[in-house]
Amino acid sequence: MRHVSADSSCAPVQGANRLLLATASLVALAAAGLATPAFAQQSQELQEVVVTGSRITTSGFTAPTPTQVVGAEDIARNAEPNVFTTITQLPSLQGSSGASVNTFSTSSGQQGLSAFSLRGLGTIRTLTLLDGQRVVPSNVTGIADVSLFPQLLLQRVDVVTGGASASYGSDAVGGVVNFITDKTFEGFKANVSTGATTYGDGQTYLVQAAGGKSFLDGRLRVQVSGEYDDEAGVPAGGFGEELSGSRDWYTTATLVNRGVNTTDGGPQYLFREHAQAYQYTKYGLINAGPLQGIAFDQNGNPFQFQYGSNGVPARNAAGDVIGCYSNGGFCVGGDLSGNVGAGTSLQSKLKRVNGYTRIAFDLNDHNEIYTTLNWARVESMNQPNPGSQFNNLTIQCANPFVPASISAACAANNITSFRLGASGAFLPNNISVHPTRTQFRAVVGATGDFDVFGKNWRYDAYYTHGESSTDLHVQDILLNPRYRAAIDATVVNGQVVCRDPRARALGCVPINVLGGFLPSREALAYIQPENGPFQDSLQKQDVVSVSFSGEIFSLWAGPVATAFGAEHRREWYRVRGDSYGDGFTDSPPTADYPVDPILDPNGSNWYAGNYHSGRGKYDVTEAFLEFNVPLVDNEAIGKANLNVAGRWTDYSTSGTVYTWKVGGTWETPLSGVRLRAVTSRDVRAPNLSELFAAPTTTTNPNFTNPFTGTGVNVLVNTIGNTNLTPEIARNTEAGIVLSRPDWLPGLSLSFDYYNIEVEDVINSLGAQQIVNFCFSGLTEFCSAFNFSPPNGATPFINAQVFNLASIKTSGFDIEGSYQVSLERFGLPGELTLRGLATHVREYKTDPGIPGTIVTDTAGQNTGATPDWKFLAIQNWDGGRWNINLQERWFSDGTYGNQYIVCQTGCPVSTVNNPTIDQNTMKGAFYVDLGGSFDFTEKFTGYFKINNLFDRDPEPSPQTNTGLDVNPALYDLLGRVYRVGLRYNF
Length: 985
What we know:
Elements: E1 3-4, H1 21-32, E2 48-49, E3 67-71, H2 72-78, H3 83-88, E4 126-130, E5 133-134, E6 154-160, H4 165-168, E7 175-181, E8 187-197, E9 204-215, E10 220-231, E11 254-257, E12 269-272, E13 275-277, E14 285-286, E15 294-296, E16 302-304, E17 312-313, E18 321-322, E19 330-332, E20 349-364, E21 367-381, E22 390-396, H5 404-412, E23 417-422, E24 432-452, E25 455-475, H6 480-487, E26 489-492, E27 495-498, H7 501-505, H8 521-527, E28 534-555, E29 558-577, H9 579-582, E30 614-634, E31 638-651, E32 655-667, E33 673-684, H10 688-692, E34 696-705, E35 710-719, E36 727-739, E37 748-764, H11 767-775, E38 785-786, E39 796-821, E40 830-846, E41 855-856, E42 868-877, E43 881-890, E44 900-901, E45 915-916, E46 924-934, E47 939-946, E48 976-984
Parallel strand pairs: 1-2, 4-7, 35-39, 44-45
Antiparallel strand pairs: 3-6, 4-5, 6-7, 8-9, 8-48, 9-10, 10-20, 11-12, 13-19, 14-23, 15-16, 17-18, 20-21, 21-24, 22-23, 24-25, 25-28, 26-27, 28-29, 29-30, 30-31, 31-32, 32-33, 33-36, 34-35, 36-37, 37-39, 38-39, 39-40, 40-41, 40-42, 42-43, 43-46, 46-47, 47-48
């Protein structure tokens, strides 16, 4: 059994139950008097392992911060093409991003990006390291993409579930995830696998190889690895409620808003499935005025639209539908063919290529110099929605594409135009987003030890330079001004042309949106130019670091150990957008993006993906000091130590900040019983995006305007704030560990309580929040938006970030592990039970804005922090073969804790506490089955079935007709089969 020198709770990876399921298993085994190893046990050889919870490397040191360890064998048994998926199964990780998250997005740049989030605090508050070193971010938010890391050479992954800023600096508020590579690997190994879902999609192909060899009598060591991962993803469905494959769980679940002034005593919000947005249809719907309710079929023939809820069009200027819900703009049932939520990718396509090399040379027996080189690329693709949905297109009655019957109706009603809503189903291709992230990283360093006054000291010094580029391209998307010009047709000299002569002069070709008529190639080239929106960004990171660790003197209870060091880091980025999205001021006209008089020279001309140009940088200099002081070493009292650390950090943007931690452990006289506690002050400094964000513009085609109660197409502009200061967190943890007691050798159990409070939280107010705040009387927010801009410009909302909020979360982790030899039962091999559970007691967010209240989102299954989340593993190792069963579960929750549930006689519904007719969102229980067989000493075949019983996700209702699921918690893919072959020599 390997020795863990820093506290990893004997590395069980946090413990126990589906509340009682895993605990019952452990108790049953304990009663049988059986033995267990640590969770991450990978080798029977005695070796020292320095775990990430501290910078102290003195042998025998036990850190007070809980650290979960996932070893190479655990990763192999989980058989995932990306190790990211294996780590995110740990219950303490909540809200991580991945290939199934952000698929609805056009402009975020985070599609297909794999990044961790601990404690639900977000990816920006979790620090991800590679061999204890920072990695150049893959996004301007400062987060690293784990897909770019070398994975076959991983020795283990340490997950520190507590604040670690005093040890590692900014971003370690929720904790640290540290990927540790095998620096002494010799030989050759390879892995190939393939898989698919039970629905015939989601195909994956993975090829990995790694080799290591020593030269010059072992003084020169070289490791290399390479991998190729091709994940086809799960494509989008289309319009209506039809998903890809034969999946049938999508029901357009929606929270229908009846308004706060209901008079029948019923709730404001109603949970309804099969909701119908009544402002648009697949091929066009007249949605206001005297002709309201007339729709067009694929051939352009008008017909009376079938509204759900037996709705009857009011035929007024607002476009109300009597019998439906005017505040939300929904009916229930009816013709759902125009709904667009099913047209979102369930999982992004992903292609991952990685090459890694480490070369180390021993100067002598105690000193090593080394260099590492890593090059990696990740290409992804997602479809955010089908077509291009508009609610407010103006069609002239004299338009030659308008059917004669409609022209006659216009004349009879004395109107010259009508308002149209359409999903854009006539377009031959749907929008697709193509991010490509490329990373180069080089490290030159030296490690070793030396003696000073009879004391041995260790050192680690390195310089790293990293560059990360992201090319983000959007295809088959509309230029809004050109689209509006193309649909405004007229007849000149007997020819159907675009009405605007400026548009005609630059190639405008008229199109017919009343039906499913395919535009000509020339018309498509005009409204959807092939160059499309793009954003090219480059980030650079340079780090110089040096640290020392050793023992300085001895006290009555043992040697006092210390670690200290300094670091200087520089972060820089530059981003460039196209002229049509950015505007011609920062991005001058080019051959691909020439000046067009009908376009807005300030940019934001695309339907979505309006990327802007910008740049920024900051420098940070840090120094840290850590002590471990043994207090007691007595057979009657036990062993106790005090661990303290401090860090001085100076940012070029926001000045100086201090972080610290104070903790301790007590090995009690009771066999195997250890107490631990730690409290720390942690920080997260504003990242480049928050400080210097190039303004990003997105389109919300169905934004709810509370002033009118109708949907409106708006542009949301996100901008940065250079006046931001660091977030300040206070993190406290206390726990008890039972580790291999004499009376039951091998048993490992632990319980840890955590409490995290974050002040001055950098928070971007959502567009709906800003408008709602103004609507509720907070006039300071009213200047941030304009629903009626001059000259027919698109309505907009400016969203900015501020140090205005706070977060408080608390809960506890339970973990356990036990192993039984089955030989006593006449069966071969060993059975190991492992359990991990996290309970979130509270997750309170205070927006810090007058008129708002503190909200507690713990247990909201529309978010990332369910009340309970657990992972249980049963592994039967029979020598040449292995069977692995795994259960993943999280508890039932709510749509939102702010709601008041009522059916009749409801209280007055408010913005802070609205009423709703139901508020229960079921949790989920997933079972995974895997196994392996050693054909020879070198070849091993394996299989894995995820979501064995093909459990569907629960509806996560929205206030629009988007994809009503929560990929942060629920499995969207269904049952997945995977098989592979490993070679080890």
